[in-house]
Amino acid sequence: MFDIVVLASGRGSNFAALLAAQTRGETPIRIRALLSDKAKAPALELARNAGIAAVALAPRDYADRISFDQALFARAAEFTPNLIVLAGYMRVIDAAVIGQWRGKAINIHPSLLPKYPGLHTHARALEAGDNVHGSSVHFVTAELDGGPVIAQVEMPVCTDDNADTLAARLLAQEHRLLISTVDLIARGRIALGADGITFDGRTQQAPLKLNASGTLTSVE
Ligand code: GRF
After folding, report:
1. Residue 21: CB partners within 8 Å, gap ≥ 6?
2. pTM, entire model
3. What is the mean pLDDT of residues 39-61?
């Protein structure tokens, strides 16, 4: 089995979607734990209800950012994960700490990176007049939403969309994207090589795309 630790700061719908895929038996993953920087994160409650280890660490209990990140990732390492999945985890991670997890930590972000790293992605896409919006899964580096992009899902923007309708519609697509990407990493079909993302052993020049039937395909 391919062991996963999820980091989440809030709601946890992406965690729940991954867990549901695991429960349906459609992907060879085993979620070992949910870790959070917020003791009140609803994601922790979802994990507890599912009988999954739920751990909260408070940044204020640590002298500085690096001490917190070291403690959090040491706690994650106790579950010997093959992959750490950041799903709505709202902190940038110290470079030395995340550097030890190269190719073993991914994040889901609600924009078509490199567009709109950071917050308010839906409002920014609307302001820019984008016709297409989407979500990306990328390997995590110390740069905010800046690591190599593995895969994306695209979605049309409608004329009557506002930030809330866009966010809600995209969330369902995010869940599909995260499940498909994690599944291919777990099956050893996606990895981070010396020259970038590899898919079935071939280095990719562009992110994989999720098609309507839920399959990730190379755009080469
Ligand atoms: C998602 O939109 C994700 O892309 C972003 O934060 C949100 C988390 O949602 N990084 P949830 O906590 O998984 O429901």
Report:
1. 27, 29, 179, 182, 183
2. 0.98
3. 98
| CATH number of the domain where residue 98 is located | 3.40.50.170
Pocket test for ligand 1, best of 7, 11, 14 (most atoms within 8 A of CB): 14
Residue-number span of the structural domain to which 159 is assigned = 2-217
Is the pLDDT assigned to residue 220 strictly greater than 80?
A: no
Task: Say if CB 104 and CB 77 are below 8 A apart.
Answer: no
Ligand 1 atom 5: the closest Cα is on which residue? 88
Query: How many domains does the chain divide into?
Result: 1
Protein residue with its CA nearest to atom 14 in ligand 1 = 13
Ligand 1 atom at minimal distance to the Cα of residue 89: 10
What would the mean pLDDT of 105-121 be, rounded to a whole number? Answer: 98
Give 14 Cα–ligand 1 centroid separation in angstroms.
6
Cα 11 from Cα 79, distance rounded (Å): 22
